[in-house]
Amino acid sequence: MSGPVKIALVGMGWWGQKMLAVLSSAPDDITVVRAVEPNMDAVRDLCAEKSVTLSADYADALNDPEVEAVVLATPHSLHTDQIAKAVAAGKHVFCEKPLALTAEEAARSVALCAEAGLVLGMGHERRWEPPIAEMLAKADAGELGRIQQIEANFSHDKFVGMDPSNWRVQASEAPAGGMTATGIHLLDLSVRLLGRAESVLCICEQLSSELPQGDTVAAYVKFAGGGTSYVSASLSNPFMSRFTVYGSKGWIDIRDKAHVEAPDGWIVTSAMAGGPIETVEIGKAEPVKDNLVSFARAVRGQETYPITADHLVDNIALLEAVFASSRSGQIERVAQPAAAKVGA
């Protein structure tokens, strides 16, 4: 097939609306033809304005022959079942993070898509931020030497005043403070750079809010191939996003100037062995859109989607161990599901 990939946006809350907005600037690659939202009245006018068919039932999207792919911006616990139903209907899947809440579920979803020849995209747009993409390329090329340590924080206070009934602030949907909201992106980048995690110690506390899952979380991760990552996140302090990677030949510190909801560029400080410390500013980009465009191009066979099967499963295996450690207060081993080594 040719032309833009026709998608259904499933879940039209905060992030579904964000994706609808950014995709208006990528009409050659991807087109939203349908939206699914149980609270139809909340987005009826928006969908009418965008000429997007709206319904409340996920089955409507799966049964629509025009829909080639579904984009899931839904509660975390629903992802595994929704992916299975999409695969059964022959639809490609782009899923907002986290892919699942257990490694077994993640491995199952990855295997289903791979066996059906369907693309599974993931809402880890941090990989498409220009300075992050450049950092990953330098690491892959060996320019940073042996990657030794990672330090990262991604915090905001957007959820503090949220309706307590919202699924995003339910401990059952989002355990361990901000780990499923923001920390998961940092775990993904850590796995991307250092491979499969071996163990993790996580501390999660409720320090300055009423958020039932806690508002302050920190995880210290040891990787099977060596190296460590310190990942922290708060749901009750002003915005902060920082990712720093240390290698034997150089280090790079990347700080976002604004939340990815409305990106405003980045400040990058770095140093290579024998060289000076340098700071540069990177202009605005729209990584949420760029991730979805990459997914659409993979559906069309124009490029290979860069988040591999192993990355997807290894990240959720680490996330599951983070949950366990936040409950126990002890170092927890990271399991490797038997199905982790399926094709990308």
Automatic annotation (TrEMBL):
Q: Where is the GFO/IDH/MocA-like oxidoreductase domain?
A: 137-252
Which InterPro entries has this protein been placed in?
A: Gfo/Idh/MocA-like_OxRdtase_N (IPR000683), Gfo/Idh/MocA_Oxidoreductases (IPR051450), GFO_IDH_MocA-like_dom (IPR055170), NAD(P)-bd_dom_sf (IPR036291)
For this UniProt entry, which segments traverse the membrane?
none
Report the residue ranges that make up the Gfo/Idh/MocA-like oxidoreductase N-terminal domain in this protein: 5-124
Protein name (Swiss-Prot/TrEMBL)? Gfo/Idh/MocA family oxidoreductase
